[in-house]
Amino acid sequence: MKPANELTTPELVSFLKAANQAYRSGSPIIDDATYDHVYLAELHKRDPLNPFLNRVEPEGDFGSEKVRHERPMLSTEKAYTTKDMANFVRRVEGIAQELGIITSSIQYRITPKLDGMAGNYSKNNLVARGNGEVGNNVTHVFNHGVQAIGGANTGLGEIVLLSSAWENGLSEKFSHPRNVIVGLVGADKINEDVFEALQAGHVHFTPYSELPGQLVTAKDLTGPQLNDICDQLETGCGYPTDGSVIEVVNDQLKEAMGHTSHHYRWQIAWKRVGEMVTSTVTGVYWQTGRTGRVTPILKIDRVWLSGAWIENVTGHHAGNVQNLNIGRGCIVNVVRSGEVIPKLCGVVKKGESALLPRTCPSCDNELIREREFLICANTESCQAQIANRLGHFFSTIGNIDLFGEKTIDTLLTHGVDELPKIYEQTDKDFQSMGFGPKQAQNLVREINRSLTDPIEDWRFLAGFGIRHLGKGDSRRLLSSYPLLELPSVTAEQIQALPSFGQLKASRIASEIRSTWPLIESMINLGFNLTGIPNVAKSDNPIGGLNIVFTGKMENPRKKLEEQALMLGATPQSSVSKNTDILVVGQNVGSKKLEAARKHNTRILEEAAYLEMITSTPHEKHEGPSTNSLKKEAKTASEDQFKLFA
Ligand SMILES: NC(=O)c1ccc[n+]([C@@H]2O[C@H](COP(=O)([O-])OP(=O)(O)OC[C@H]3O[C@@H](n4cnc5c(N)ncnc54)[C@H](O)[C@@H]3O)[C@@H](O)[C@H]2O)c1
Ligand SMILES: [Zn+2]
Questions:
Q1: Which residues line ligand 1 (CB under 6 A)?
Q2: 506 and 548 in one domain?
Q3: Which InterPro entries does this UniProt record tie to the protein (predicted)?
Q4: C-beta separation of 605 from 598 below 8 A
Q5: Is residue 20 part of a domain?
Q6: Of 1, 140, 488, 591, which residue is 20 to 30 A from 257 by alpha carbon distance?
Q7: ipTM, two decimals
Q8: How far is CA 65 from CA 11, 145, 182, 454, in A?
């Protein structure tokens, strides 16, 4: 593809149309930042009245029934800078003044901007946005297992995947969580991993009205606190997001502001981009990761960006490098927005053509192409995969230093390529590999420290990099079964735990068994595994339960969720029929309470909840039984919440 500024306007529009179609069908040809800030921005600059910019970008049709929306489903205007936001506020205040509304009294509501597929759920049909006027009937997704949060006919919302499902498995298969959703809506045959997520209740239709939100004033929108507020909402909602949505609360004001053919004038999306710089690609390098995925790293001429010198930029994946045709000599934009690794954001000037490797840069094995990704399947003897697996263990257990990339490379060149072997090395062995006497001594000291300093058993288990057994799932698994019993735990037993579907459970069970000889030999070295107490469900008031925390809490919500996880419960972001407890703080929204009442979910105040979990010792066979505690725990009366509703 040519850089945006070298395209004629008709070429630019047809490229935008093609990129949009690819994006809506679940296989984007460029990343969002490049689409927004390079190609779309170029058209805005050149031809702001172009029809492409003034209507909703259409979705594919998924082959389903077409339904006319009662009211058009529009897109959102986007603010990328404080100046954009100040302009929005000025516009709102201008209309408010005409209506005689005191501008300082104007309230705005911020909600996380969900990154899935938007739809309207009414008259028992879920209709995806389509072209904004006519949508696609996708009600069938509920038969596939999509959970309707808040019940039926809840209005505008989004089909979304839980972030946890993305992080614990699906990210290994798909390049973006939205691709999972598009695939599920349009596919004749659902991908087995997606099927799994559906079965485990991890795909939701979440109405925007159920989202956590915050009321703010104009001062918050234009001040530095806006990013903190949005960060908190975005990370706290439990779903992938691509910004936050800000809207005017006052109905009279909304009515007066109205809409364009593209967006509502009373609503804006806050999408942050970091500082952007331009540099030249001096080479494209490929790296093989722990799971065999081979990813591109772009070497660029050193540039200063957001307080650091940048020389390497991630090229995301093979598909991206190929579609943007990135080779040596290309001039590229690079952005850094909060995250550590700077990102590529579009090609400014073409250089050499992209060259994808045919073989693994580490072991020379022929690579396999899986969608956008290149994979080295030589898991047994690919040195890069081995090195990354060893590195993963050390960084996950977190109580050992000095075993970084360089040390591991030296160990591998001397044939020390397994964890137990590393733990056998003596001072003399290390010296014979070329480490200095002091270094060798320090390495031995670290090995001893890692054996004696306590490690939580779930951290230790997650260190083995078993697929689907990240830290969260290791913790959930070990809260029901002790580490030493794992080889005899069956797939059915794992599946019976919350958030483990059938396929995932059987993969975990079989991989635990195949990895067990290694895990066992490591345990036998005498690690100080503190483990979380073995909380059998019957002895723990919240083991195995689904809990939603809502409202302003005395304790940080993140802490409460962590603690619930440790006790074997699953924190959820919204109330559904499988929620067991709704824990409420101050200023709880009426929707969550209504949903809890509808589903007969137990409602507990924060204090009562804490009393319930802390007054039970979490060791087995000690203390009062859960049942007696459940009776004692105060259930908050409905009247108390009417105050906040
Ligand atoms: N990579 C690509 O090639 C490519 C192509 C096309 C579009 N895109 C991306 O898609 C974006 C535009 O797509 P769009 O028009 O579908 O969506 P949008 O980004 O304009 O968002 C508008 C939608 O957000 C939804 N939304 C989500 N959370 C909400 C909330 N809390 N409150 C209210 N509404 C909420 C609404 O349904 C609304 O329709 C671009 O910014 C770009 O990043 C990427
Ligand atoms: Zn390899």
A1: 19-20, 23, 28, 30-32, 35-36, 57, 73, 75-76, 111-114, 118, 158, 208, 211, 245, 269
A2: no
A3: BRCT_dom, BRCT_dom_sf, DNA_ligase, DNAligase_adenylation, DNAligase_N, NA-bd_OB-fold, NAD_DNA_ligase_OB, RuvA_2-like
A4: no
A5: no
A6: 591
A7: 0.95
A8: 32, 20, 16, 58
